Amino acid sequence: MVSKFALLSNLLLASVALAVPSSRLEARLARRSAGRQSPASDVGVSNVEYSSNWAGAVWDEADGTFTSVTGTFTVPTPSGTSGAASAWVGIDGDTCGTAILQTGIDFTVSNGAVSYDAWYEWYPAYAYDFSGISLAAGDVIKLTVTASSTTSGTTVIENLTTGQTANAEWIVEDFEEGNSLVPFANFGTVEFTSATATGPGGTYTPSGATLIDIEQNGQVLTSVTTSGSTATIQYV
Fold this sequence. Notes:
Helix content is 4%, strand content 51%. With 236 residues, the chain is mainly beta. The strands form 3 sheets. Strands 1, 2, 3, 4, 6, 7, 8, 9, 17 and 18 form a 10-stranded mixed sheet that branches. Strands 5, 10, 11, 12, 15, 16, 19 and 20 form an 8-stranded antiparallel sheet that branches.
């Protein structure tokens, strides 16, 4: 299983409260089968690749290596008039197109107004929004995904600032709207701390993972760095 700490330029969103599928999330679900929107290209720098919609750190190991992944970050304030991005953690989804277990936070700017949503997904099932959890810029969010088998697991989103928790039993990316990527929001910086992936193979941190930056129309839009258990994704 592949483990990742990632920020992508589409919106994705998640509590123990009622979760209902939306048409926007169904569109995201359809996109999931393709995973990363473009093959990563090796730029000749160790552990660095480029993608049109993913930025973050990815470990690509043998099946069964990872059973849990977690990371903590502070909700950013995106700028501009229109755009979106999503910060999430997950198992699989990069090299596996048939099973993706992930959870995260979307941040959207629409006509200058900023909104946030929490979500979880276990592809090929529906993606769902969580209700009953509030999100605001500056909140510290902890994301955890745990796979107990190839068909079962849990996702948990904890707002460490407010004390609210959202979880679902069983489960900074650019997403699409229609057939094209939405405008990528200037999210500033998202820093995942205490980021680890665990399993029978031991505990991994972002340090040493493959780094992926977003490149669109020949322009690099992100800068990803890692240090120990920290992965930092910066809009440039």
